């Protein structure tokens, strides 16, 4: 249903807005666009470990946010 899809998009945007720019770029690149972490790391000029760390923290942050929002 279109209303539910719009709510889901709004919730996803709220989650992404909680992240810093680099973490948001990493989350979108890896999770949404299904890019390899190494490719995102090269694009940002950071190490693979940095991407792994930021992605892990972004997912933890999203889980906490969703827990607070009642989803």
Structure in words:
This protein is mainly alpha-helical and 71 residues long. It is 80% helix and 0% strand. It contains four helices and no strands. The chain has helices at 2-17, 21-32, 37-44, 48-68. The longest helix is centred in the last third of the chain and has 21 residues, at 48-68.
Helices and strands in order:
Blueprint: H1 2-17, H2 21-32, H3 37-44, H4 48-68
With helices defined by DSSP (H or I, 4 residues minimum), what is the helix count? 4
Strand percentage, roughly?
under 5%
The geometry reads as globular
Instruction: Please count the beta strands (DSSP E, at least 2 residues each).
Output: 0
Backbone structural class: mainly alpha
Mean pLDDT: 92
As a percent range, the share of helical residues equals: over 70%
Low-confidence stretches: none
Q: Over the alpha carbons, how many angstroms does the gyration radius reach?
A: 13 Å
Question: How widely separated are the two ends?
Answer: 18 Å
**H-E order:** HHHH
Major sheet: size, sense and barrel closure? none
What's a quick, concise take on this entry?
This protein has 71 residues and is mainly alpha-helical. It is 80% helix and 0% strand.
Keywords summarizing the entry:
71 residues; mainly alpha; 4 helices; globular
